[in-house]
Write the structure tokens for this entry.
Amino acid sequence: MDQKTTPSREEHPTMSVILMVIGIAIMGGSVRYTVGSFEEPGAGFLPFFTGLFITAFSAGTFCQIIKRRWRPLGDLWEGTQWQRAMIVTVCLIVYSAFLMDVGFLLATVLLMGLLLRVLARKSWKVTILASLLATLGFYLVFQIWLEAQLPSGWLGF
Amino acid sequence: MEIIYNLLFGFGVALQPNNLFMCFIGVLLGTLVGVLPGLGPVAAMSLLLPATYHVNPIGAIIMLSGIYYGAMYGGSTTSILLNIPGEAASVVTCIDGYMMARNGRPGPALSISAIGSFIGGTISIVGLMLVAPPLAEVALKFGPPEYFSLMVLGVIMLTFLAGDSMLKALCMASIGIFLGTIGMDNLSGMERFTFNISILIDGVGLVPVAMGLFGISEVLLNVELSLKRDIFKASLKGLLPNLDDLKQCFWPIIRGSVIGFFLGILPGGGAVLSSFTSYAMEKKLARHPELFGKGAIEGVAGPETANNSATGGAFIPLLTLGIPPNAVMAILLGAMLIYGMQPGPMLIKEHPQLFWGAVTSMYIGNALLLILNLPLIGIWVKILKIPYYLLFPLIILFCLVGAYSLNNNTDEIMLMVIFGAIGYFLRKFKYPLAPLVLALVLGPMLEKTLRQSLLMGAGSGWIFLSRPISLVTLLICFVLLVSSILPSIKRKRMVIRED
């Protein structure tokens, strides 16, 4: 790939390769559930063909992209602070892992506080106030008004 | 006579205080998400779907519908004032709407878009009311091959319009269909691709997928850029259009209403396609086409009317055939199934209060939107000043509570986060997400009708070609697929990006 000239399209073949692998894996997995025949299609019939289509379409996309010049993979994140997206994702995974134990109120205040303080870089005053207000607002609407059953956790709230 | 009786019956349902309240909330939230860039009707409806489990189903459908057509109204505000489309159907409004604002006429641009939206919305509701019941009667004669072909057409049409690469869109649609097959197979009772995860036995839920792909991924893409946004500074004076403006806009509004309604009915068509088509037509028919792109008021009136008119048309395939023509209607279909209603030819007969209540609520909603969008325009402009650092934690919180409330299970949150991350990467690599969501909803129906058709035809594909409706539908699919390969059509193909 010639990197001296500016490529015209912001594309990269990586995703099409990943999707090709996924398509092949689906086809392989479908065989376990009986593909059957056109006369008697089995449980794996449609998944098998969707796997085949995913493989074929991503192979087509791959061929289209490699015919042109493409940008280095890192360019897709050029000028961005991708770490912030990663922080949000990790926070959400941790939140869902501990929500049942910690309870909605405490877990949500902590999550909101973290997002506002670390990502938005707000002062402690704004962080605490906004986290408490947002959490309480949601609690009132969903738990009290709409009677959803939000988890109460160890502490009972 | 029967239509008047049905209309009165519908108003009786829609004017019940709780339904009226839900209609108001729907159009209010719709306008809000339309105004706020980056949060479209699909995301908003997915976010609010779990909240509607606790209200009556008719009220919930009225509210969700209100979000859809409300977003079409609100979407024009940011297009005109900031040159940022609030949602995809308002992209074309940026061209002349923003130029009008820059020329010192933001008021007439905003008001003509509200007036056009009101007229287009109202005309399309009349069309919906007149077309849906007879079409439902015809649809009763459809068998599995017709349904299968129509669903394939819906997916192909959307992939044709979804982005600059049809291969990518087809790949996304295939993934959506595959996701729709996960879970218990209805015919054999076999669990497929569940990996012993309990929430997958009933299938991959639409809500965590849509929330993840549209809500969480949007936040992830925004937080990595900047949490600051330009604030609108221009003042709004002279809101109403003058007589000349109204004269110039009369025919564009009428044409926009008709185009929007018919393109809205088409599977895969809808608001985005109709607004682009209307703009192209107005430019072609204008006495001074050279003014387009420099602030022509017809370039605002036509597309804004058309995208609202399309919302009424889009309800027709959903309510009469049970086939959602776009991602928004797919969410609505998902909602109806959750409430225990099966959209399709029998819906009008089995749930007349839902059909006529929802249709008449749209008249009320359109009137409410005119009030919300003309005198209260200043408030919407103020909302544009809400900093994103306050908005994104709230979007996340909506997603978290919504996903958890589905089954009171944190696994749903995990599923949503996974799809959020998947959506983030897919968007980075320019893969369109709408075909995936539409195909996910259609997947189980597609599989059922395909297997039924093959059994009916003893394994022969001839069954799809021997029935006229199915044959014509598949021929259209074939033409679309072939035309997407031809370079001349490929160049002309309207590229409608989700972002």
Residues 1-8 of chain A have pLDDT under 50 and may be disordered.
